[in-house]
Amino acid sequence: MELKMKLRKVICLCICLAIGGMVYFGYLICGVGPNAQFHYRDNLGRPLPSNSSMLLDNFDYNDEMPTRGHEQRFDINAHDVMVFLHIQKTGGTAFGRHLVSDLDLQRPCSCQRKKKRCYCFRPNRNEVWLFSRYSTGWKCGLHADWTELTSCVDSELDKNEGHKQRRYFYISMLRQPLYRYLSEFKHVQRGATWRTSRHWCGGRSPTPLELPKCYPGPYWTGVSFDEFVNCSHNLAVNRQTRMIADLNLVNCYNLTTMSPEQRNRQMLASAKRNWRQWRTSHSPNIKRSINTCSRRRSTCDSSFRSCRRTQRRVSTYWQC
């Protein structure tokens, strides 16, 4: 009996020492004491050298990608409007919800239960500061691209608020192109088509000859991968570049005016130019919101210089 009691005491002592050691080791290595300070430099949307760490004290991202001119801060109290360009299958739905529900604002967006629309007004007056699916709806068309938004947002806001001199700050989400393409294929295979998208460009929508459908009926449910890839008019191809570029520079959806190589080069140059302009402005509230979503490491794709995480999805506010 005494032997069993001694054995129990020894076991309890070992367990207590093990627990105490783990707690002490955690405080010692991780530095999570009450007075510990982390020198964390956010890198979201910025390129990192392949051998760099996320915990950086003296790293200046402007040394990697110089900024032209001075960055402009988003002023929610003035007439600045944030426009979210939602590209399909990039995580934009989740990010759009974060924009209307998780920002640290003086006057948070007012969202009602069981409704997809929120009211995102400025702190000092009932004017919209966010133009997105969950704040204003698809005012410029379903998944409107840069060409559609730049020709539509101002007039749509004027209808409700009257004419004002506004500044527009565009934000978007990018994703590793191959993963995004495969995700769109599976989504279309399940029945999605986005067939109500207007593709507005040059003052009109494209004609059936300019943008033929890849399928005869209202849906493309059950499409095989070979059929999906072999349709020459499938908008899933190069979607991210096309939606960020100014399509007026390539005569919209008219493919007869230039070679495919020239058209692709023009679109890529336009998309990179637009993305670079987006980088010159930022909002601290958006930056904090993105940080709460993820602090995963980002890498930079040199072909499009688009920010992408080593994980599945990409969220970006600045250009690489």
Spell out the blueprint of helices and strands.
Blueprint: H1 2-30, E1 72-73, E2 80-85, H2 92-101, E3 110-111, E4 118-119, E5 121-122, E6 125-128, E7 130-131, H3 146-150, H4 153-161, E8 167-172, H5 177-189, H6 225-230, H7 239-244, H8 260-279, E9 281-282, H9 284-293, E10 298-301, E11 306-309
Parallel strand pairs: 1-9, 2-7, 2-8
Antiparallel strand pairs: 3-4, 5-6, 10-11
Order of SSEs: HEEHEEEEEHHEHHHHEHEE
| Biggest sheet statistics | 3 strands, parallel
Radius of gyration: 25 Å
- Report the portion of residues in β strands: 5-15%
Chain-averaged pLDDT: 78
Helix content estimate: 25-40%
Q: How many helices does DSSP assign?
A: 9
| Unreliable parts | 28-68, 287-320
Distance between the termini: 71 Å
Structural domain count:
1
- Count of distinct strands: 11
Shape: extended
Q: How are strands sequenced across the largest beta sheet?
A: 7-2-8
Backbone structural class: alpha/beta
